[in-house]
Amino acid sequence: MDNEAALSKASTDKEKAGNRVVVSFPVALHLHYINKVRPSEKLVPGSLLGHDPITDAEFGCPPCVLLVGEYSVGKTTMIQQFLKSDYAGSRIGEGPTTDAFFILLYGQEHKQVSAQYMINDNKFPYQSLKYLDERTLKRCYAVYLPALFLRYVTLVDSPGILPKSEEPPRDYEYDSVLNYFALKADSILFLFDARRPLVSDEVSTVLKKFHRFESKLLHIVNKVDSCNADELRLAFHKIASSLARISPSKTLPYLYAGSFWDQPMRHPVNYERLERDSYLLFRHLRYLTFKIHARRLDEVTCRAARIRAIALVAKESDHLKRRLSLRIFQKSYLKKQMDYVIYPMMLKRYPLNPADLPSARAMAHSLWWSFKSRKPMFNLAALRKLEDFLQNDLHRFIQVLSYCMSIHAYRPELKPPPPQKSVFTWKTVAWMASQLHWREIFQQLNPSQDTLDFKQIMPHIESTGTSKATIERIWRLSCTRHENMVDEDEFCLFLFLLELSKQSDWVPQELNEDMKPPKGHTRQSKQRGIEDDQSLNKHSEKSGKRSKRRKGIFSRRKKHKKRSSHHRRSHRSR
User: Fold this and answer.
1) What H or E segment, with its residue span, contains residue 68?
2) Where is the composition biased (Basic residues) (predicted)?
3) 284: in domain
4) Rounded (5°) CA angle 361-367-369
5) How many domains does the chain have?
6) Are residues 122 and 153 in the same domain?
7) Each residue of 529-555: b (16+ CB within 10 Å) or e?
8) Which residues form the domain of 460?
9) Contact 192, 219 (CB under 8 A)
10) 211 belongs to a structural domain
11) Other CB atoms closer than 10 Å to residue 128's CB: what's the count?
């Protein structure tokens, strides 16, 4: 009440001053709710409205995300990945570990408080938990953490759904608390285990209860990295077929792939699907921070429309108060008046939605006690304020909301997270080649001009048992330098990809630069060899020329000697 008085006083002061003050959307909606909706709401019995009044703390709280699923599907681990830390009360194990509801809120200090005490705090947005019994409240805790994620999203960790064969008797109203948080949540993340894809009867029962929350229900298949491609395909098929039998809609819901833990991936085949679905999931969570304003406006509008319908019915039924004083009719007569006279007349006279009118029995009962206790269910001044909100103020809120939505729609989206540079690098390939002597195998296959074609390699890989389509795909990836030919480095890359496909049933769509052999690695060696050959040839040519020169010199000397000796002989004979 102190917050209500302060807000109403602030609004009246601003009106008197005539100054235009810019406030946030939740604060403006809260002010209009207090000044124009709540005066009429106080006069209407709560039994006719169906829901509790919207508390002050609900207007400023961040969106709520509820995590539901069987035990050991990874709900708590997923929350720890979101928060980058543990929280008080969290336990992780193979069996059922969490047996309480934990409401994770932002706070300066890390502390855990029972919901029995928090329901009396005006800043706690879930004060309506007070209608649960004491034993159930003992199973609900508010945990405050200084995590940045909780500034924008409130998380609710729920106990796992237990099968009847393993279920110990729960001593509290599990279904009531789960339904309460599903009603309050802006999004529900329903987790499945990829290693246990069979949907039990208990999970089916919970999913059937969540049919009315289908618009905010997301299905996540967790622990995807523990399955290879065939196992993952089978798990998705089983879960999708089970959901098809349960879901009333004709279209199947989208199944998000998830692996929310800090361990390295066991099967890289699922990496691309995980990256894409993680991006979609976080984009959905980010959009909740805007979507919650539309939900609050919708709640206030629906509540105001129902209050207006009840107040108008009470106004049109006010003339029946005289007959009640004369005791000429009872509740049954008042119910008939509602069914056959007042309700048809109301729908003709006022633009009302029939869904906003309560049942004739409930309305007759409330009017009966209102006439007897002389407590009116409407006030003309309060009704005028309510009409002003629905006819004038609501359109302004919708304009602001639609403008914000257009900004959000045309704003460039954040780029998806950059893909991992590579699952392996060329250093890994080179190390494997040295360990398994792949370069020696390349030389044994008698390469022509330091390259091998597909026919030369086939006899070596026929015994691997890999499908022909996979081998051809790996071959195309390996031929990075030559068309349909591989050199020594590419041959090592080919054998490495072949081993990778056998171990993990995965082949990359394309190779990153750090996966390929270094550019010019083999070419440089070839060029060095050619240069060495050329230098040797030049050296041999030079040495040949020298030898020829020497031979020419020797032959000339011999000829000169012969000539000189012949000349001497002829001279002597003379």
Assistant:
1) strand 64-69
2) 545-574
3) no
4) 105
5) 4
6) yes
7) eeeeeeeeeeeeeeeeeeeeeeeeeee
8) 426-519
9) yes
10) yes
11) 17
- Whether residues 46 and 67 share a domain: the answer is no
Same structural domain, 508 and 559? no
Going by C-alpha positions, the residue among 37, 291, 6, 293 that lies closest to residue 122 is 6
Check residue 531 and give its pLDDT: 47
451: β partners? 448
Q: What is the residue type of 321? A: K
Place of tokens 């009116």: 376
Residue 57 CB-density burial (10 A; 0-12 exposed, 13-18 middle, 19+ buried): middle
Backbone angles phi, psi at 174, to 5 degrees: -65, -45
Residue whose C-alpha is closest to residue 153's, from 297, 290, 254, 57: 290
Out of 410, 444, 478, a domain closes at 410
One domain, residues 542 and 463:
no
Q: pLDDT (tens digit, 9 = 90+) per residue, 166-181?
A: 656 678 888 999 999 9
505 token code pair: 């049933």
Angle (nearest 5°) at CA 209 between 206 and 210: 90
Instruction: Compute the residue count for the chain.
Output: 574
When computed from its CA atoms, the radius of gyration of the chain, rounded to whole angstroms, is 41
In this structure, are 382 and 340 located in the same domain? Answer: yes
Q: 175 and 220: one domain?
A: yes
The reply to whether 524 falls in a domain is no
Q: What is the number of other CB atoms lying within 10 angstroms of the CB of residue 192?
A: 28
pLDDT at 13: 47
Same domain membership, residue 118 and residue 250:
yes
Q: Under a CB-based contact definition with an 8 Å cutoff, are residues 127 and 194 in contact?
A: no
The structure's pTM equals 0.67
Residue 16 lies in a domain: no
- As a whole number of angstroms, the distance between CA 145 and CA 106 comes to 5
Question: Which pLDDT tens digit goes with each residue over 258-279?
Answer: 888 766 666 666 777 888 888 8
Q: How confident is the model at residue 95 (pLDDT cuts 50, 70, 90)?
A: low
Place of tokens 């009847």: 164
In angstroms, the CA 261 to CA 239 distance is: 22
Q: Are 342 and 317 in contact (CB under 8 A)?
A: yes
Which alpha helices (DSSP H) does 33-140 contain, by range? 38-41, 46-49, 56-60, 75-83, 115-118, 134-137
Tokens of 406: 């257009």
